[in-house]
Amino acid sequence: MNSFTEENYLKAIYKLSERTEEMVSTNAISEEMNTRAASVTDMLKKLSEKGLINYVKYQGVSLTSQGKVTAVNIIRKHRLWEVFLVNKLDFGWDEVHDIAEELEHINSEKLVDRLDEFLGCPQFDPHGDPIPTKTGKFREHDFIKLSKLERGESGVISGVSDHSSTFLHYLERLNMVLGKRISMVERNEYDGSVVVEDGGGSKIYLSKEVSNNILVTS
Fold first, then answer.
1. pLDDT digits (tens, 9 = 90+) for 68-112
2. Strands 154-160 and 60-63
């Protein structure tokens, strides 16, 4: 059985590997885990000995097939618990990440399968992220960044890349919530900021960073 810390490392490596076709660097993992590089190196050696990662000194790491299965299973549990907390216990989408971080380590396949069935086998979590199936397959989605919309194009807010409570609070204050249709009015060439309009005609000004973290579908 893997420790909570080992599982968190595997999940972090999986997340980072989605952003690059190359091996994940030790520095990237250190930054993601907010941990000293020396501590990261020690953990990588341990995960390598368990056959969960391929670790090449000075080059980086990649998940083995066993490591990927483990990481995806953790992600599945995390996202199912987020759905449960929001849909059944009335938590806000900005409250559930940290709680799900703890619940994801419960090691009971039977419990997770029953949770999935109880929730009606949801395909996406409260932040719009796809929930992998029991066999580890992710549902296809056609999300694009809000910042990529052309002037005059519209889309429905269907997910976010940043799950931090501060970002989600900010979106709620702007009433930029899942399911809301918005249209691109203007993009500032200088700093990448944008102006969007909601269905009620209200114009909303967003920075480049914010618009990059909002995912929309047509």
1. 999 999 999 999 999 999 999 999 999 999 999 999 999 999 999
2. unpaired
With vertex at residue 4, the alpha carbon angle to CA 78 and CA 119, rounded to the nearest 5 degrees, is: 20
Q: How many whole angstroms separate alpha carbon 62 and alpha carbon 23? A: 6
CA dist 26 and 8 (Å) reads 15
* Domains defined for the chain, CATH in brackets: 4-63 (1.10.10.10), 144-217 (2.30.30.90)
CA atoms within 13 A on the CB side of 122: 25
Orientation angle between helical segments 26-33 and 37-49, nearest 10 degrees: 110
Whether residue 30 contacts residue 36, with contact meaning beta carbons closer than 8 Å, is answered with yes
Q: How many other CB atoms are found less than 10 A from the CB of residue 62?
A: 16
91 Cβ contact list (under 8 Å, min separation 6): 85, 99
Query: CA angle 91-107-120, nearest 5°?
Result: 50
C-beta pairs of 61-65 under 8 Å, 24+ apart in sequence: 61/13, 61/23, 61/24, 61/26, 61/29, 62/13, 62/17, 62/23, 62/24, 63/10, 63/13, 63/14, 63/17
pTM for this prediction: 0.83
Q: 158 with 216: CB under 8 angstroms?
A: yes
Q: Which of 157, 214, 149, 146 is nearest to 180 (CA)?
A: 157
